[in-house]
From TrEMBL:
SUPFAM superfamilies documented for this protein: Bet v1-like (SSF55961), ISP domain (SSF50022)
Superkingdom, natural source: Bacteria
PANTHER family: 3-KETOSTEROID-9-ALPHA-MONOOXYGENASE, OXYGENASE COMPONENT, IRON-SULFUR DOMAIN CONTAINING PROTEIN
Keyword Electron transport: no
Annotated Pfam families: VanA_C (PF19112)
Protein name: (2Fe-2S)-binding protein
Magnesium in keyword set: no
Vanillate O-demethylase oxygenase-like C-terminal catalytic domain span: 100-274
Keyword vocabulary terms for this entry: Oxidoreductase
Organism: Methylobacterium oryzae
Length: 285
């Protein structure tokens, strides 16, 4: 069981709302704890499934298209995304994809722009446009989140609705250790940001379910086309993630040497270390 109180203090997405039909139980795992999910009378419930003793009822909430639960008796507030209330946006969710690595590795990979031309060739990047321009990274202490802003990268096809290549502007947000959101230039609406996010469910220290979403302005693509575009990107990342060694995230900077392009990763690891993160990380040397 996870005894990392920083990790336990958060809410975690454990299923899409539509994947939890009335009266059909669903078994899953969160932080090494076996959990049973059930929807009855329109309300989702979550209970622990101990090998002995009595099951414990966990708090649940439904937000951002997902069912959330927590192992904490006094969890932090679930972070706000007011864009979910904006008219005209379309929400597409992908369901859980299991990845055999620490969920923290998934977050860090999501923050990495340098791999775009080599892993997502012809889509999110291409040669010779391989340089990562300097960008700003900050810890927003009022909400205890890591943000990377003023990010720019040339992309041949930045989104399903994009026509041709463009210099795409990004903002990255790490709202909690296992949850991250990308805000990117909307190709069809001036001044708006499209949102792409990962709600990561750490099942164990080396296995996670990744629940993803896109929240976009797009009048031309079907939900299936939007979903297929994002899943194509993530499945390319999945091959990289499951072959990383070690599968846990090292916090010791001597184990993986960063470059200028890794500013957001450096800030993320420092933030985890400052909070005493022990779950899903490689112990300090």
């Amino acid at each position: 069981m996870c005894d990392d109180q920083f990790t336990r203090s958060y809410w975690y997405a454990v299923a899409r709302i539509e994947d939890l039909p009335e009266g059909r139980p669903r078994a899953t795992k969160l932080l090494d704890v076996d959990i049973d999910l059930l929807r009855t009378q329109g309300q989702a419930t979550a209970t622990t499934r101990p090998s002995d003793g009595q099951a414990i009822h966990l708090p649940t909430k439904e937000q951002y298209g997902h069912v959330w639960t927590t192992l904490s008796e006094s969890p932090r507030d679930l972070y706000a995304m007011p864009e979910f209330e904006e008219p005209g946006r379309r929400l597409v969710t992908a369901g859980a994809i299991t990845v055999s690595c620490s969920g923290l590795r998934v977050v860090e990979n999501f923050l990495d722009m340098a791999h775009f031309p080599f892993v997502h060739t012809g889509i999110l990047g291409e040669e010779p446009h391989t340089d990562v321009a300097a960008y700003d990274v900050e810890l927003r202490e009022d909400v205890d989140e890591v943000w990377a802003t003023k990010c720019e990268f040339y992309q041949p096809k930045a989104a399903a609705a994009a026509e041709g290549g463009q210099l795409t502007r990004y903002m990255y947000r790490v709202a909690q250790p296992f949850s991250t959101v990308l805000y990117k230039t909307c190709p069809i609406r001036e001044g708006a940001w499209d949102l792409i996010g990962l709600f990561i469910q750490p099942k164990t220290q080396t296995e996670c379910d990744v629940h993803s979403f896109v929240l976009v302005f797009d009048d031309s693509n079907s939900d299936n086309a939007l979903l297929q575009f994002q899943q194509m990107i993530f499945m390319q990342d999945r091959m990289i993630l499951e072959n990383q060694v070690p599968s846990l995230l090292p916090l010791d900077p001597r184990l993986e040497l960063p470059t200028r392009a890794d500013a957001s990763s450096i800030a993320y690891r420092r933030w985890l270390k400052a909070h005493g993160q022990t779950y899903g990380v490689l112990p300090q040397a």
